[in-house]
Amino acid sequence: MRIDLHAHSNVSDGTETPADVLASAARAGLDVVALTDHDSTDGWAEASLAALENGVALVPGMEVSCRTAQGISVHLLSYLHDPAHPGLLEEITKAKDARLTRAERMVTLLAEDYPLTWDDVIHHVAPGATLGRPHIADALVAAGVVADRSEAFASILTSHSRYFVQHYAPDPATAVELVRAAGGVPVFAHPVASGRGRIVGERTYRDMIDAGLAGLEIDHRDNPEEGREFLRGLAAKHGLLITGSSDYHGAGKPNLLGENLTTADVLARIEELGTGTAVVRP
Ligand code: AMP
Ligand code: FE
Ligand code: FE
Ligand code: ZN
In this structure, which ligand is nearest to the CA of 189? Predict the structure, then answer.
């Protein structure tokens, strides 16, 4: 069984439609793929139909943007939650709305130094999609300022950049509680990805575990090996599930579907724990 539990569509910052992500999953020889757009479940319906057409099982999911009190960004994957649960929906809607204002602020700052307008950015965003720095990167690529998203993130768009602006995001332990309340299975995405910015300390893990964290995404290209050892120890100590995934973004990142996989046993546990919605099987 080839199972990849982390992929994005153009409902957030991936470059393919939800249906195309499922078609790509079939071409990559996957049996199961999770659609995990940032702060949105808007792709689930289209992806569910495409799962049947492409003969690939779909795990409906989402990646919740969070931030600790210390200002450290945390991504929390949620699988099989009820998309209509009011508490969770309220938080992701707040974050999604804040992302819009934040992107506008970043574009205003960038426009002082680069040939960039708000319209240039919106041109790269599907209607209703969750806006992120990758969309600003796409506009900078189109303007010839950088060659690709990776170059934009290595320079102008890093979290240390003077153009960087934060947006509202819930505390990770609160998000874990809300995902559980919505019948979902919360998994800490790429927890030790130091290349993306500061990573959390023991206190945050403890708070998230106490709140009901179910698993750790250990096999992910952004987790350095030393960090993975620490995570394996933590998973063993607290009985957490271990997942492996690609974090596919279509043409927006080099990450390829199936480059990391999750075992069938772990998926079975996720299905037992997730009560908000079901896996879509062809
Ligand atoms: P934001 O959510 O607006 O803060 O932007 C973060 C998003 O940018 C993440 O979800 C990643 O998918 C994407 N990202 C981070 N680093 C890179 C990179 N080097 N190349 C392409 N996309 C990236
Ligand atoms: Fe992303
Ligand atoms: Fe992420
Ligand atoms: Zn992701």
Answer: 3
Residue 132: count other Cβ atoms within 10 Å of its Cβ: 21
Q: Residues with Cβ within 6 A of ligand 1?
A: 13, 38, 132-134, 149-150, 153, 249, 252-253
Q: Which residue has a Cα nearest atom 13 of ligand 1?
A: 134
- In the β-sheet with 241-244, what is the strand arrangement from edge to edge? 3-7, 32-35, 57-67, 73-79, 185-188, 215-219, 241-244
> What single-letter DSSP state applies at residue 130?
P
- What whole-number distance in Å separates Cα of residue 63 and Cα of residue 126? 18
Instruction: Cite the DSSP H helix spans in 112-224.
Output: 118-122, 133-142, 149-154, 172-181, 202-211
By alpha-carbon position, which residue is closest to atom 18 of ligand 1? 150
pLDDT tens digit sequence for 196-249 = 899 999 999 999 999 999 999 999 999 999 999 999 999 999 999 999 999 999
**Mean pLDDT of the 134-150 span:** 98
How many Å apart are CA 186 and CA 242, to the nearest integer? 12
Helices marked H in 66-171 — which ranges? 86-111, 118-122, 133-142, 149-154
Q: Is the dihedral of CA 117, 120, 125, 127 positive or negative?
A: positive
* 166, amino acid identity: Q
Cite the beta strand spans of the chain per DSSP E. 3-7, 32-35, 57-67, 73-79, 185-188, 215-219, 241-244
Distance CA 196, CA 241 (A): 23
Ordered structural domains, the chain, with CATH: 3-93+167-273 (3.20.20.140), 99-154 (1.10.150.650)
What angle, 0 to 180 degrees and rounded to 10, lies between the N-to-C axes of helices 86-111 and 133-142? 30
Query: Against a cut of 0.90, is the pTM above it?
Result: yes
- Looking at residues 114-140, what average pLDDT do you find? 98
- The bridge status of strand 215-219 relative to strand 241-244 is parallel
